[in-house]
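Provenance and format

Records in this collection were gathered into a single text stream. Each protein contributes a sequence line and a token line. The two records reproduced below are adjacent in the stream.
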Amino acid sequence: MRAVSQATGATLDVEGNPSTSKTTSGQKTLVELQADRDRISDNIAKLEAGIQTLETNVIPPLEALAKELANNGTLGQQNQQMADDYKKVVEQRKAEIVELQKQLAELDAQIAELEK
């Protein structure tokens, strides 16, 4: 019965409780939207944790080492290059977070619409 409801886009009420299959054809169910939201939230959290690690535990030591080795041929330059590369990774991750936050806002709007 639920499969028929989802296929036709109808609303299914079971024992007086509205089902989460309250969709129109081709749309995701409330449960699917909430699962997508959870997945995106988890991805944002992982990206933020990775950024924190790079900004705290990776980039500063590389920059310090680059300064210490500045007069030691290419070693100082290599460490500074690695630090700069990680800074670029941080900026890329921050841009990814912005896009994921936009997706999250869209999902929140869809969820709010279905919960009406």
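Adjacent record:
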Amino acid sequence: MLISDMKTNRNYIAVLLAIAAIVTACDKHDSLDDQTFIGKMAPQVYWDVPGLTVNAGDSVAFSAQYYTTGERPISHLEVWYNTVETEEKQVTASWVTSVTYSVVISNVVERLPENFAQARYRHDEEFWNDSLHAYAMNDKFPTSYTKSKVQWGSSDWDSTLVIKYFGEDFMQHFKDSLETILKADPDKSYTDYEQLYVNAGGDVTTFIKAYADSVLNENTNKYDRFFIGHTIPAGVDSFYQACTFKDLIWDKKKAEYGISYKKQFLLNAILRCYDDEGTYGMALSKEITLN
């Protein structure tokens, strides 16, 4: 019984010593993020990136604090990042009133990092900061000028850019799809054809005299207009066929084209701190937007 009690006391003392060691370590490095490691004790690292939006090709400045409680000395630090490419495309026929005819396309492409660091930084014992109880450094990492933002649309018309950004068949597909919607219900789409005619510079009175019939709406006490015979006249169909994609997306009221394209790159960056055996700890990821 005596031997058993002595073993229990030893275990209890060992647990107390372990807890005391953990509390002391947290006390010393309370300025850095808490991290849990299994196996080898990796260096711990924290960084701050004040400018999260930069021009492509410019460097990104950062500050870092790091330390180790492991047996191995710190070797160096590295910045790694993967690239996320986003595309946003939108085309709108603003004159359509029966439906909201707008094509919106969003693409997200994630480009994984190459198998090497984007930047490497030496460790120096002179970086030690007594007040922080950690090493401290200020530096920067590069970005590529090839990842600059691309934005186009609305004011300037360029058919070659439409083909480049939306595809060679997009303009015809847009026109054909819209025509299918308009022809599905001639009574409902009368106002759309009328608006397209006016949007293209035509006179509304001329359109009404040539193609419209009407009936008094007792609820609104106004005349509802529709096509004669409730079918789309040949002259209106011919007019639509003569319209180009450029005509269909022109917004006369705003004096601009209803088309836009934007491509932008984001960097998901991390900072790694290595010991001399290659074991590393990582700081929290930072998202950098490139303009």
